[in-house]
C-alpha cells in the first residue's frame, strides 16, 4: 500500500480554465446629431447707385 501515497499527491490537478465568456459588446448606437443646416440668408448686397458724376459726362462730350 506504499504506492497509495503517490496517488494522493495530486500534483497534476487539471487547472480548470474558467471559460471566459466573451462579453457581448453591444455596439453603442452612435446618435448622429442632426446638423440642422443653418439657413444662410444671402445678404442682399445693396449695389450703391453709382451716380455718374458730372465730370464723366463732360469728358464724354469732348
TrEMBL record:
In this chain, the stretch annotated as Disordered covers 42-62
Low complexity bias locations = 42-51
* Descriptive protein name: Uncharacterized protein
